[in-house]
Write a structure and sequence with these properties.
Blueprint (H helix, E strand, L loop, with lengths): L1 H16 L3 H4 L3 E5 L5 E2 L3 E4 L8 E6 L5 E7 L2 E4 L3 E2 L4 E9 L9 E5 L5 E6 L2 E7 L8 E7 L3 E2 L23 E11 L12 E3 L8 E10 L4 E11 L5 E12 L5 E11 L4 E4 L5 E7 L10 E4 L6 H4 L6 E8 L3 E9 L9 E4 L4 E5 L3 H4 L16 E3 L4 E12 L7 H9 L3 E4 L3
Antiparallel strand pairs: 1-8, 1-29, 2-7, 3-6, 4-5, 4-8, 5-6, 9-10, 10-11, 11-12, 12-13, 14-15, 14-20, 14-21, 16-17, 17-18, 18-19, 19-28, 20-27, 21-26, 22-23, 23-24, 24-28, 25-26
């Protein structure tokens, strides 16, 4: 115990010692790979100082290769190329003078006169955050894979002649939503939501996710969008506040990574999420060419197809298919071990829908294969007044099928990151 306390103190002192730009230069980092191959894993270290005025990279001592860094919110984030199982790698932080001709690898740009923020990675358009309150909820669309091939559905944002799957217009590409949300205001019972607000569908009587403040930034390791949304009932009465952040990492086009952080805050009274299958803390609607007969739905246990994956708890769920003239493309959603009721159940359908749903257990429990697997029989959950509920997910947009894209290894990068830390010398 004494050693543990002493070591922690040393690390804290070390972080403080590199708080300035001069101290950060040539600071060392050690990374130890586990029992699987690492590939472009985002590495997050604590850092207590300001961002230096210039470009920051880390250089691997053995090879001299340099990798991107973003410093933000007390974190030093870098993305190494990878590592073979059981190997160790030492890096040095390198500071370069500011060069206005060099753009960040991940650039976010707001479209003129539109509530749309475009995300470019290495000058290639990856996705766009759409947050106009003309829509009932914000969403990411398009979501492009290798070769600028979209993996999510264009409808209803774009009309494609002859496109299959023109149903469920509330399934907007890549989004977050839930079907039964109620306000329980103990101080003012008259203010309670008389029936659950539908913040999943987008019909006449459905609720809203009203976009408030939206900020964004560019960086070499990742760029980000941070948004404050107010979930409302059909009459625009506020139910809760939601803080959302998307991180878009500078990884190769054949394996894009997005972290989705979602925090619900009960600002107006207790909030009840009523058990329903209609929801996803991360939800996607895949493009028709990757759905229906082409759909290959796979979970972490190796189950394949809607008939064995729908509602089943699993650390991840992948939706892939082979597109004519293109090859295999897919998208995986990873659940984080710290999330409520991990591993999540999945509202996943062969027609293209996939959502991480930790609430709809009365529906999921009807499946015989789920007997004994669900944490509770009824998934109702209440966020107490002024308290929060947070979720972390990672989305992996990949070329290849589940095996060739090493989906299980990329989940391990997220759920149990490799051992990495500052070197105290």
């Amino acid at each position: 115990m004494r050693f543990s306390v002493y070591f922690t103190a040393v690390v804290v002192m070390f972080i403080a010692s590199v708080a300035g730009a001069d101290g950060l230069a040539d600071a060392k980092i050690m990374l130890n790979a586990g029992d699987y191959k690492l590939l472009n894993p985002p590495i997050i270290l604590p850092y207590g100082g300001p961002e230096p005025d210039g470009r920051i990279q880390v250089e691997e001592e053995k090879t001299g290769k340099r990798f991107p860094v973003t410093i933000r919110d007390g974190e030093f984030v870098f993305i190494p190329e990878g590592a073979m199982p059981g190997t160790s790698h030492r890096y040095a932080v390198k500071l370069e003078e500011k060069d206005s001709t060099i753009e960040p690898r991940v650039q976010l740009k707001k479209q003129k006169d539109k509530d749309v923020i475009d995300v470019f990675i290495d000058d290639v358009h990856f996705t766009s955050y759409n947050y106009s309150n003309d829509n009932k909820k914000p969403f990411l669309w398009p979501v492009n894979s290798e070769g600028q091939v979209g993996v999510t559905r264009d409808y209803p944002m774009a009309e494609i002649a002859g496109e299959k799957g023109r149903d469920h217009p509330h399934h907007k590409s890549f989004y977050a939503a839930y079907g039964e949300v109620s306000l329980i205001n103990q101080a003012d019972p008259a203010d309670n939501t008389p029936s659950p607000a539908d913040c999943w569908a987008e019909g006449e009587n459905s609720g809203f996710q009203h976009s408030g403040e939206v900020t964004y930034g560019s960086g070499d390791a990742y760029g980000w969008v941070k948004a404050t949304n107010t979930w409302q009932d059909k009459d625009h009465k506020p139910l809760l506040t939601e803080e959302r952040e998307y991180r878009f990492y500078a990884t190769p086009e054949k394996g894009r990574l997005v972290d989705a952080h979602l925090t619900f805050r009960a600002d107006y009274g207790d909030v009840l999420f009523t058990d329903t299958k209609e929801g996803g803390m991360v939800a996607v609607r895949m493009r028709p060419e990757l759905s229906y007969d082409n759909a290959v739905i796979t979970n972490a246990q190796g189950d394949v197809g809607e008939s064995t994956t729908w509602g089943k708890p699993s650390p991840w769920c992948d939706y892939s298919g082979k597109m004519e003239g293109v090859g295999w493309r897919g998208l995986t959603v990873f659940d984080h071990p710290t999330n409520l009721r991990y591993p999540s159940s999945w509202h996943v359908r062969g027609y293209g829908l996939m959502g991480a749903n930790p609430f709809g257990y009365s529906y999921f429990g009807e499946k015989e294969y789920n007997k004994g697997l669900l944490p509770v029989e009824n998934g109702n959950y209440t966020i107490k007044n002024k308290e929060t509920l947070s979720f972390q997910h990672r989305v992996y947009v990949h070329s290849g099928d589940v095996e060739s894209a090493a989906v299980a290894d990329r989940f391990a990068d997220f759920a149990t990151p490799p051992d990495a830390d500052w070197v105290v010398e």
